[in-house]
Design brief:
The protein is of the alpha+beta class. The chain contains 15 helices and 34 strands. The chain folds into six domains: 137 residues, Outer membrane lipoprotein wza fold like (Roll), CATH 3.10.560.10; 75 residues, wza like fold; 86 residues, Outer membrane lipoprotein wza fold like (Roll), CATH 3.10.560; 66 residues, Outer membrane lipoprotein wza fold like (Roll); 107 residues, Outer membrane lipoprotein wza fold like (Roll); 105 residues, Outer membrane lipoprotein wza domain like (Outer membrane lipoprotein wza fold like, Roll), CATH 3.10.560. Strands 3-4-11-10-14-12-13 form a seven-stranded mixed sheet, with helices on one face. Strands 16-15-19-17-18 form a five-stranded mixed sheet, covered by helices on one side. The N and C termini lie far apart (93 Å).
Length: 626
Amino acid sequence: MCKLLRLSSGTVALVCLVALGSLPLGADPVAPAAEPAEPAPGLAAGHTFQEYVIPSPDASRSDEVSEDYVLGPGDVLSFNVSGRAPAAYTLTVSPEGKVFVPETGQLQAAGISIREFRRNVTAAYARNHRDFDLSVLVTHLRTMKVYAVGQVARPGLYVVPSVTRVLDLIGYAKGITVTGSSRRIEIRRDNRRAATFDLVDFLAKGAVEQNILLNAGEVVFVPDRGPCATITGEVKRPGLHELKAGETVRQLIEEAGGVTADASLSHARLSRVVGGERKGFVPFDLAGLLVRKDPVCDVVLQDGDDLVIPALGLYLGTVTVSGEVKKAGPYELKENMRLSDVLSLCGGVTDQAALREAYVERTLPDEKREQVAVDLAALLHDGSQEQNLVLQRGDLLYVPPLSMVQDTIRVVGELKALRSAQASSSEDGRAIPPAAGDLSTTYMLRRGERVKSVVEHLGGPTPHADLRHARVERAGPQGRAQIISVDLYRLLVYADADQDVALQRGDTLVVPALPNKVYVTGEVNRPGAFDYREGRLLLDYVGEAGGPTRRARLAYTKVIRQDGEKLSLVEVDLGKAMSHPQQARSLQVYPGDVIILTERSVVGWQDLVSILGGLGTLRYTFIPPK
């Protein structure tokens, strides 16, 4: 009788209990010899083992002793004749392989089956006798020496019955250790591998043909355990499974006894170790593999793979959050639940979350899965409701780590995130904050990202940005620098896709500052940008712009001025200044000032925001491209 013992997760040890007619109940069938045994064939000289003797069972009760049993030296036979001259003899096969039968002579026995030997004896006996019945039975089995070595609990030389198979010997050796292979067991003969035994196939598929009878002198070698994968969840035999070369997901599930009726195939996940770290999920379609029997959906497994097949009940009214969040796991789905709701439930994202790389994976009615990209940076920092998806039953929100975003570029110049300390904190971690006074940053690219996306992510251009003369600097062949001109004015104002250059790792995006200018707009005859010259007054620039129109309300003239990182609004009564020269001399102008002559009063910050919103277009309307 054989009993399987699980020594650790996924490791199976086999112990065989042999029913022996002459063995008292509870006795150990393995009796160690007094002296160490000779070394196993093929092992280094001086390497000896303890010898263990396995008592031979009663041959008449052994299932292995059939008509096809092959006789050998040491087998004991019962020879019985009935008829006119009855006789009974006990015969032993000699070391030469022969048996002496009285009144008949010597006959060859070794190497032939009982059936064939009986036929030969009957023919020989019939030469001298008539009217008889003859029977030949094996009453005592011969013994032989074999070795169990490698990762077995009790390696050694074993004196075993002639009907011992591979599995029996492993049982005598107390099973396979936790570090031993259950898939690549070798049977060695004459220092060469004669056969292999896969215990997993034997147990899962009933591959009895592998459990061969051993021959005298053979070695059963159990090597170290090979590559392994873990399967958990809704399978019949979850745990750690040793892999064969080229083994696939389908084969692993078969070895685990198949999936249960509660398995949610569409939500199965396969994660993989890359470079010593577990890197997200390997995409595969388990429903396509097991339901539609599509071999294209199968995946070849690697060492360390982890296959999880969750329960269907987990996805009836739940959504799952994984990755860089504070409390990953399933959450109860509520009516009209959105991304922002589940992010609140899971405690938000970690500081290592790649917010713009997140996605929601969901199952379609035809059992296919789709991934919906979501920009969590836009949702969490900008309040974009376009990204605030309504969740569905069984959705999986995955927020990958920043380590998965590999490509970086340098961004230099007049972008708001580089000017503003608050914006440059880069809450989603994709732009590293610049040092004080530094108008540059390292920016982590998404796959296929272009200039417009980067500019928008960094807050857009500042009022001082020279939109028409932005550029991308790229290392060309043989290290030569390549300059790609980008007209941000045409890109941002006219949505000119030709200016939206695809960025590459190592690029530098430069948004230069404008030359020193003073801008005059609104109710003047020639609005535009004019060179700043120290000592010139506000009236000088208004005059250079052709003076005010008839609709201008001079008392409501405004000057927008940048003071460090802040914009301020200065109110000027231009009519009073024109009639009082002393007051006009006090109206100083600075580089970058914007002078606005309006036909209505600017009464509050809402109007200021409106003016600033159009300022980018205003500043470049009057600057022709170089």
